[in-house]
Amino acid sequence: MKKLINKPDEVVKEELQGIELAHADIVKVHYDPNYVVRVDAPVKGKVGLLSGGGSGHEPMHGGFVGMGMLDAACPGAVFTSPTPDQMLEATKAVDGGAGVLHIVKNYTGDIMNFEMAADLAKAEGIEVEAVVVDDDVAVKDSLYTAGRRGVGLTVLMEKLVGAAAEEGRSLKEVADLARKINSQGRSMGMALTSCTVPHAGKPTFDLPEDEMEIGIGIHGEPGRTRMKIKPADEVTEMLMTPIIEDLPFKSGDQVLLFVNGMGGTPLIELYIVYRKAVEIAEKHGLKVVRKLIGPYITSLEMAGASITMLKMDDDLIKLWDAPVKTAGMRWGV
Amino acid sequence: MVITRDEVLSWLQAYIQVISKNMEYLTELDSAIGDADHGANMNRGFQAVLAKMPSMEDKDVGTILKTVGMTLLSTVGGAGGPLYGTFFIQAGTKLAGKMELTLADWAAAVEAATNGVINRGKASVGDKTMIDALTPAVEVLNEAVRLDLSVSEGLRKSAEAAENGMKSTIPLVARKGRASYLGERSAGHQDPGATSSFLLLDTAAKVWANNL
Predict the structure, then answer these.
(1) Is residue A208 part of a domain?
(2) The whole model's pTM is what?
(3) Is A61 a catalytic residue?
(4) Do A199 and B35 touch (CB under 8 A)?
(5) Closest Cα in chain B to A74
(6) I need a labelling partner for A263 at 20 to 30 A (CA). Which of A101, B71, B133, B169 fits?
(7) Model pLDDT for residues B106-153, shown as the tens digit of each residue
(8) Quick one: A113 and A17 in the same domain?
(9) ipTM for the complex?
(10) CB contact (8 A) between residue B73 and residue A116
(11) Range of A298's domain?
(12) How far is A110 from chain B (nearest CA, A)?
């Protein structure tokens, strides 16, 4: 697998060096432990917002640090949860005296590392709350799994909660908002190819030329089912149906429709999917009031797409429209 | 018969090599039912432990193992970091101040370490995790102490139990961690965490049983 890197061991460090050069007006990068933080942190009196996860999902999360979104993000090794010392230092760096909210995607590693960090931060007197994102309908949420994964909804949550924090809402209000968002958003993804982790040198799984994987996560791990590839409209149907049925979304609901590229799928194809997704949504009586299309939560060079739908209301629409200035998302400024 | 502090250091040095040699193998196991990072993560963590070895040489066993745990916690990441970090920190806490270990000391430490992993990760035997290798080994170690077996025999039997436990993960459907997203598709593959745990205990048996 061809990659545009130097040594696998240096990938994350070199990426961070590129980020700090490219976006010096928005973020600073701290090394050992690694985290990306907004230039004006800590913002006094504002709830600090922290997330993090394995690298390889860019622009998430480092690309979402800045005004109106995250205050800091902790990057782990590729597809590997970051460590407690990263989150502890980042929590201290963004503590503006109004508490800090951790947005944690539901993966075993993320949960444990963030939990340990929160314990350490609380022991130092910082008020920390954590919210778990688990929007993926592909995984059965049962006693017999690690639970639903946190995927596309994470991006929407970081924007919406970021705006709420910027407005000056309290830690409790911001945490409650995050939990509300988590309860009314659903996602599902698919892949046309796997991806190659720098160290592994070859794709995490082999997908024959004429097959696709439905129900994938964001770490190159195999999905739930493999089948012969179908046209985009049928694939879109296969993603939208479980999303709509799971919440369930009901006729009359206002929704934010997010068609995400996994990294290796071009915009031309995402727009084809978006057009069909809107048609399906409207057929179910849903009103698409906002949208997001593009590679926002990726899996290196995996070809594929995911769809996220979030039930909206006036407050969420206002928070979505609020100004944001980050490397990966920018409007109203 | 005792295991000295220096033999504990030898064990760690040997395991660092074992992880380095098995990095590709662990990666392959983790590709089948995970995200292909277990080999690299463990190697990164244990290379960091290697760098700390000179500063640990004159310390007691408890301090050494706690230092290993803290190092792993801040370098491995993923689920392995907190779990192996907790394993070594708990073992180290149990062996605080000790310069040599009896079989009973070792059994108590591995039991405390395994309980720590269970508390943090909430896995049970049969979930297809490192616990499937560790729990049988703990049972055998405790039995060996009860029967007053030699250190060598106790170590060898516990390594065997860990090996059987590791192999027992092959047909299991994963109920924890990333493998659990695959459902039935996780069956037929050996768990990477159970493999690295087996190697830990196997290396201890090979290094210590040979010296006694």
Answers:
(1) yes
(2) 0.91
(3) no
(4) no
(5) B77
(6) A101
(7) 999 999 999 999 999 999 999 999 999 999 999 999 999 999 999 999
(8) yes
(9) 0.84
(10) yes
(11) 185-320
(12) 7
